[in-house]
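User: My advisor, Dr. K., asked me to get a structural model of this assembly before our group meeting. I'm new to this, so sorry if the format is off. These are the inputs:
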Amino acid sequence: MIPAMDYHQGSRGLHRVGPGSGLLLLACLLYAVLGASSLVVKAAVLVVVFGLAAWSEGSAWAWCKSLRFVVLFATLLFLAQILAIRDGLVLFRIGIPVTTSGVLSGAHMALRFLVVLSSSFLFVLTTDPDDLASAFIRWGIPYRYGFTLILALRFVPFFRKELRTVREAQRLRGIQTSVRSIKGIRRAIGYTFIPVLVSGLIRVDTIAMSMKGRAFGLHRRRTLPAPRALTIEDGLIWLCCVLLLAGMLLARRLGGS
Amino acid sequence: MRELSVQFPGREQRALDHLSATIQSGQTIAITGPSGCGKTTLLRTLAGFIPQLIHAEVDGEIRIGDQHLSTIDLAQLSPSIGLVQQDPDAQVCTLRVRSEVAFGPENLCLPPQEVQSRVTQALNALGIAHLAERDTTTLSGGEKQRLAVASILAMQPSVILLDEPTAHLDPEGARDLFDLLGQLQQATACTLIIVEHRLPPLRSLNPHLWVMDTGRLVERNASRVHEDIAHMARQVAVDRSFPSHCRSPQGTLQVDHVSFGYQEALIKDLSLTVEPSMILGVIGPNGGGKTTLLRLIAGLEDPDEGTIVHSEDMTLGMVFQHPHQQIFERTVRRDLEIDGALDESQLATALASARLSGLADAPPQSLSLGEQRRLTVLAAVRGAPDLLLLDEPFIGQDRDNVTWIVEQIRQARDRGAMSCLVTHDIPMANALCDRLLYLGDQAILGTPDDVFNQLREQGNSAFTPEFWEIAE
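Assistant: The format is fine. Below is the predicted structure of the whole assembly, which you can bring to the meeting.
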């Protein structure tokens, strides 16, 4: 299952924020969660991410759905830390001792993982890839690389749809793709991978012709669409980022975080 | 074109074989011919994709005015010649309609005002200005086709090549597209070269008709093609009375007050019964819910309201729009054996019936589109299913393949199986189906005559057989 990580159109919250502001916000959130040593700060950053998702109407539900596997992995990370770390005060035993260090370490790791992925997903869901690619090109990245990003994002929904169709075709032909044995896994991969790969290759060929046939690569530069106008939301994001960074620096200077 | 030949690596036969022709500026050429005869290869060669992007040995010459095509880089050629490919979905490069149309002019480094002006003109010409800010992945097939044409139009080429532009369009969409192209040609005097199996909607363009076969141009201005098409529609007419020996009251399929939609309702309170030996044709505009109905019947979607009732042990065979999505194994033999083992004689008989003899050990992915289609139909009918579902099986298929697929549907009917056929091929639906379901703003169900009469009364002429009759 490929999580729904493609862009969703919307008109509120982060949808009204330009790609530059979005990237700055993402960087600040990552800095806060990776730089802070306090569990409370990490939890607060996670709450902020949830708040931003709720603010960005139209993408909140897609974002929640994309987090199912992230939450699962975060839980596994948490449990793995509990099982692996035996230092500290023993809280209780489940065959092996569960210690304060294990719980704290697991919580830190799970929160970091949750914030990094959930904020990145939110950025992808709310940032128009066309705007992002244009911004990259405007910042000096060659446009061929900028369009690589757009094409990569264009292929996400395609592969998801194709995977679904191929699985439906398998189901209708009574093909059981069990993953309980090596043979079963090989069969499942072959039966799913080959049709999806063939579709992907056909699509790549067609898109390459479509791009070349419309003068892609003819000149070293290309005309860029006008940058999107700054919004009040952009201003808010910049202000919040400045305050967050100032707070983090102040806390560090005062000896805590 | 003079003595133009194209040979792909590893192929014995030339895809194009000493083809010579002159096309005057402003002409409209319609090219038809059987699958694999070289129509798409010709367009791709004229557009410069062969050999610059697709490797092949090219002999002979193509000149545009005084320039030899072989001396022009593909990207430099694009402002002069634009190719609209067959699958409109696959050629979309960006995620927004406006940026897709602007993609070409932006690559030409035109000033932003000029880009904007061309985008607006192209969107207006194709009647899709209201879609400018839409996500390209949310467009219907017809909208994507218009977008593909608009994207090429924005380059303002003097020659526009179109590879089966109506393959994914409903009859109304096909007629509208050619009407638009006619207006465009009058306004810009561009040259149009169109590969097409469905010729009647091309009437409005009054094209010069070319017929190709095995890489050669065999006829020009060929009236014989018109006769062939009319003949084929007559040829598939079948006796619509049900064979009484096949009737089985347990075998009916009942769709009972079914409603379903994704974001908005697609199918509203639909009821119908399919009886044994019945062929139900499903026609209607793009995005009307035809494929969705097949998915509901196949159990791939659950109705929001209502029920779909059939006997528990009913077996099902389904043919998808794109054959490669239904091919899983490394060889044709193994793929057919997914549905049960076959001994050599059974395999040989099955392959011979589908004109796939000698291909038992060939990788299915290496087959032509027509061969892949026959393989997937063969796999669907192999187990003699009680219910056969076919989603646009005739797209991109030549007359022989269409005839073969029709034969499979008739055989299924003769043994008592039910069939549901989604198609844009109105003459075929009229000739082949016992009942028709039109899924549009409202659903119309009945005999073909009843449905067409109602469509006539509504002024929906593109969905009636007479629209597809070739004028004398």
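One thing worth pointing out at the meeting: Chain A touches chain B through 52 residues (CB under 8 Å).

User: Perfect, thanks a lot.
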